[in-house]
């Protein structure tokens, strides 16, 4: 019996979004669906490459199609966030912030970037911490950025991460502490706009601590997908965290969640856990604001020594790397959830099916012939969008992990990365 597109669409209602608890058809995540010669060609509004939730949903979709005797070919559409986006080739900007200095924000940003790259994602890391730009040291970059003919900076790479830092621009003896506000803004905007990032799945931004002008400039200039707020469990840090969360919310930037750092120290001598900076504070603030506690990262001297050596601990297979691996997974999943909730028009922190803005027939799915299929969540098809496709330079966006990427990721950069969604037909 021939399987119709409407039958397949109905069966895809069995695939539930694990973060939002609603099926993918009702959420409007299936933006195109057609069946051609026994192959189900399904386009998804997924935008968090290597997020395990999205990879698992891809597997579920293939199972459903296989039950109907179909092979599957998946592709993704990338929503355009904003027409004035200064970084059209960047799919997700993740801001890493903290209420105060010294809580491990740069450690978290560096390990997050290196961990995402380790999974196979194309990643950039922008060190926006003007007054303490430590990223190059922590990720082991000695080199300087290159320069294109038109004066754009070409970021050096380490651990598969393209890095741009304030440190590159202030090596000639400038004391960044004496820079005035407007100068800081100008430098930050140059660091954002005049860089050959190529195509990135994630750009991690290490913000300066606090909630001052520099943070605002970054949040207002960049299309931030969401922010990770880093804190220690102690009260002073937590008070500052509250101000940080409010700053993001006031600027319509989703808070991805809280990363509590230096949570406890596991003493190798006595075997006990010591809560040097108190305990439970990150969870408390996460509950108060209704956002996830992304991870609790214990105090561990190896984290510091690896950072001092310029070797992010997440890239080493040790006990100390585990919380960062878990953080990478929860951040990618949360970016995905926030993006998918935006497609559906619902609140990612309180997903209510009654709030769904997208009709279930979204994306032409009501059209049996499947001809009306080019619409994406914002009315543009990523594949057809000249802002998303990139020129030959895009090949420089490839990291050392390129061989792990999906097979549909065109070498000329015309297709958005499917980020771990194994696109091979498994019928
Ligand atoms: N979980 C941890 N266990 C042990 N040491 C840590 C941990 N997290 C961070 N550190 C160490 O703490 C110090 C401060 O970390 P980091 O520079 O990341 O903080 P920060 O919040 O970015 O500071 P600032 O913004 O003031 O520069 C570093 O030496 C770092 O290696």
UniProtKB/TrEMBL annotation:
Pfam families: FeS_assembly_P, ParA. Residues 7-69 form the MIP18 family-like domain. One of its GO terms (molecular function) is ATP-dependent FeS chaperone activity. ATP binds at residues 99-106. Residues 370-381 have a biased composition (Low complexity). The keyword Acetylation does not apply. PROSITE patterns: MRP. Keywords: ATP-binding, Hydrolase, Iron, Iron-sulfur, Metal-binding, Nucleotide-binding. One of its GO terms (biological process) is iron-sulfur cluster assembly. Residues 344-427 are annotated as: Disordered. Coiled coil: none annotated. InterPro entries: FSCA_dom_sf, MIP18-like, Mrp-like_CS, Mrp/NBP35_ATP-bd, NUBPL-like, P-loop_NTPase, YlxH/NBP35. It comes from the Archaea. The keyword Iron applies. Homodimer. Binds and transfers iron-sulfur (Fe-S) clusters to target apoproteins. Can hydrolyze ATP. Belongs to the Mrp/NBP35 ATP-binding proteins family. This is Iron-sulfur cluster carrier protein. It comes from Natronorubrum tibetense GA33.
